[in-house]
Amino acid sequence: MAIYTPLGSLLLRAAIGSSVLQPSGSQQMAGSAFTSEAFALPGASGALLLGRLDPGQLEEQWVDECWGVMWRVRSEVDQPEHLCQEFSCTWGLDTLWTETGWESRQSVVARSWEHGLTQVALGTIEPTALQFYAEQAHFHLPPRWFHDRPEFFEFGCIKASVAGVTVRYPALRAGEVCHAQFVVAWKTRTDKDDQDAVLAVDLAPAQIFGAALGTDSDKAH
Q: Which domain of life does this protein belong to (predicted)?
């Protein structure tokens, strides 16, 4: 699974402990550009939503393409406490970028890569914003995590590097669900100060679900 950008392939991977999630086949979602790919492991199941979307930027802002990625995992068992869920979006071997940058704002952690005037940006939800989004209708994380494991979200949740971005979560209990989000955007600019691609990856989960379901984000449950 990959997103093919002008600067190379960004590979999508998810694992529970050492078990890599392998989708069993993709299905086009009605009324949208997204696909849904289901997977199952002993004791867990879930899906990957992947597709192009409109990031809803201001009139004077634009990007060539923007892609949303949403992982969903549901555990059927109490996982061992040492186990982690890990979701990554990282570069393959065909990269062409020559410069890279980093940005963190109130709701997003983002990396960017450039070659000439082409910029690719990759973002995920900033750790302190995860608790806010976990209480919304469109995105789920176990509320107990933020009370029982606050240090995990402060120090061990997100790794952003030149290789890409990885999101890690603690162990799930039976019946619990977690989501993980990535947004990728790119633009061939006329000015290297143009940061429209970086701004485009700062999306709320409801915007991805709304695009995937082909509905207004307020109706995406």
A: Bacteria
CATH number where 158 lies: 2.70.98
Token readout for 67 is 């892609």
Edge-first strand listing for the sheet containing 34-41 = 26-28, 34-41, 44-52, 65-75, 177-188, 118-125, 108-115, 99-104
Cβ density class 64-77: b for 16+ within 10 Å, e for less: bbbbbbbbbbbbee
Calpha distance 52→67 (Å, rounded): 4
β-pair type (177-188, 65-75)? antiparallel
Half-sphere exposure of 150 (CA within 13 A, CB side): 2
pLDDT tens per residue, range 119-136: 999 999 999 899 888 878
In three-state secondary structure terms, 5 is strand
**Taking the CA atoms of the chain, what radius of gyration do you get in angstroms?**
17
Q: Is residue 220 part of a domain?
A: no
Longest pairwise C-alpha distance within the chain: 52
State the pTM of this model. Answer: 0.90
Q: Which two tokens stand for residue 184?
A: 């990728």
